[in-house]
Amino acid sequence: MDQFRPLHGTRAVRAGTRLLQRRQPQTRPAGDFITAPELSPLFGRALARQLAELVRQGLDDILELGAGSGALAETVLAELAALDCLPQRYAILELGADLRQRQQQRLMKAAPQIADRVTWLETLPQTFSGVVLGNEVLDAIPAHRIRKSNDIVSELGVSISGNDLEWAVQPASARLAAAAAELDLADDYETELNPAAATLIGDLARRLKRGVLLFIDYGFPAHEYYHPQRNRGTLMCHYRHHAHADPFLWVGLQDITAHVDFSAIARSGIDAGLELLGYTNQAQFLINCGITGLLAEIPASDTARYAPLAAQAQKLLSPAEMGELFKIIALGRGVEPPLLGFCSGDKSRTL
């Protein structure tokens, strides 16, 4: 058995691709999942109303972390322009050269008249005033998978045995063991810890002079995340829009992810001097930001236009789809609550 490597649960287990060719499909899938901005322009348009409120308060720099296809930036900028509330600058932190080029091409084609307001960064600025926006960013940060058995906390990683990858176990680091001890996990329990995500929030907080960190992702508060009945954690794999729990099935081709512990995210921001400005589910946030009014702009009698948007809104809002699983959290400095997206149904007390 070769050397133990941490799983680091998210978008991981790529190095062993060549070992499992006999188990893999022959082509790369067109996509494994769809994000809310790609699902419907209603998402970005509603979110833009929250951003517009902050721009009007003088937070006229927006920094999007990991803009993906550029769909969110495109819709948000178009809506902010329609609201006559464009930021002075819309910066995108994107480390991948290919993604950066695709984003540039997309935004130049969609909105050449405001392209001069968009810039790309490769590192975080030393200081920042404005809004930091992250859609499905926290879940993409590598996580650690742990197991508690007989009051001993171990870390689960990956090793190579012959031509196969398999789970391997080693004692957890002092940091992971201490974090697990604070959670008082049940015995025979597996889950994920993501100190790197909390570290990112703390780092952003120290750089933020005035403004808001606004993160959107799927996850739970700690009491739900580490519930005794969720004793096999949240690790999930996505391949061609199918979900399963085997990270070694299509190595290098599938997306591997873990949910976000929003209590840890809130605590990290507060410990770094930020105020918790709001926390709620996606459905409540989008309703607060006027998504139903945006849908109503299209007459229901115009079936060809209305029906697709109504179906998209259903996916964004339904508790059985994205409405409950996805959450939005806002942390800030020098900004007075309540923010538009949390004016009703704020669940901050659950954190």
Note down, in words, how this protein is organized.
There is one protein chain. The protein has one domain (5-350): Rossmann fold (3-Layer(aba) Sandwich). With 351 residues, the protein is an alpha/beta fold. The chain is globular, with a radius of gyration of 21 Å. The protein has helices at 36-39, 41-55, 71-82, 97-110, 174-183, 195-207, 222-225, 262-271, 282-288, 291-296, 303-317, and strands at 5-6, 61-65, 89-93, 118-121, 128-135, 144-149, 152-161, 164-171, 189-193, 208-220, 236-239, 242-244, 255-257, 260-261, 275-281, 326-333. Helix 2 crosses helix 3 (71-82) and helix 6 packs parallel to helix 8 (262-271). The protein is built from eleven helices and 16 strands. The strands form three sheets. Strands 2, 3, 4, 5, 10, 14, 15 and 16 form an eight-stranded mixed beta sheet that branches. Strands 1, 6, 7, 8 and 9 form a five-stranded antiparallel beta sheet that branches. Strands 12-11-13 form a three-stranded antiparallel beta sheet, with no helix packed on it. The longest helix has 15 residues, at 41-55. Strand 7 and strand 8 (164-171) form a beta hairpin.
Global Rg = 21 Å
First-residue to last-residue Cα separation: 42 Å
The helix content is 25-40%
- Count of distinct strands: 16
* CATH fold naming: Rossmann fold
Largest sheet report? 8 strands, mixed
Number of folding domains? 1
